[in-house]
Design goal:
11 strands; alpha+beta; 201 residues; 31% helix
């Protein structure tokens, strides 16, 4: 299945009771990419009181590769609410860092939770996204007479040949969006009247 990911780096800023909150968001497809982005923001705002963070390095709501940090704020008031907001956003492969410059007025535990989760929500509200296509492969063996029509059919399903071998028959491996694979297999069978072998991806 496809899912949205951040299109590019995005930043928003707001003042909450004299504290300055700067939210930086980026596309981070792996845990290492998330960590590198977090370090980049920390290096940019070395004089800030806090650089709290949360990331989901995978599909939306996936808990396999997540992380969070309160970075000196009271436990559970920053990283956890930020991660909860990301996890329910429907956006995958995303990291958010909320930088805080303390303005002299304490927000209290509830106020901090609202500030950090609200900062991430504000960034998500106008975050530019693009669709991430999850590819799969479909290996087939066909006769030489079918090559041209099969290539033509593949184009209609956004299927790209990533491997081809020519022997007694033709072995082709197609890569295409996973949601189109089942219909592509059915169309191949129909086109060749069943005269082909379809492997498992």
């Amino acid at each position: 299945m496809a899912y949205p990911v951040p299109r590019h780096f995005h930043r928003v800023e707001e003042i909450i009771r004299r504290s300055r909150f700067i939210t930086s968001v980026a596309h981070t497809p792996t845990r290492d990419a998330a960590k590198a982005f977090i370090e980049r923001i920390r290096a940019e705002f070395t004089d800030a009181n806090h650089n709290c963070m949360a990331f989901v390095a995978g599909p939306p709501a996936s808990t396999a590769q997540v992380g969070m940090s309160d970075d000196g704020e009271p436990r559970g008031t920053a990283g956890r609410p930020m991660l909860n907001t990301l996890a329910h956003s429907g956006v995958g492969e995303i990291t958010a860092v909320v930088t805080r410059y303390f303005g002299g007025i304490k927000l209290g535990t509830g106020g901090l939770v609202r500030a950090y989760s609200g900062s991430v929500r504000q960034a998500l509200a106008d975050l530019p996204v693009r669709e991430k296509i999850i590819p799969t492969t479909v290996p087939v063996i066909i006769g030489y007479a079918c090559i041209t029509p099969v290539r033509r059919l593949a184009t209609a399903f956004d299927a790209e040949i990533i491997e081809e071998t020519y022997g007694a028959d033709v072995s082709l491996t197609f890569e295409l969006p996973v949601e189109k694979a089942e219909d592509f297999r059915a169309a191949l069978i129909d086109l060749t009247h069943g005269e082909l072998v379809i492997g498992t991806s």
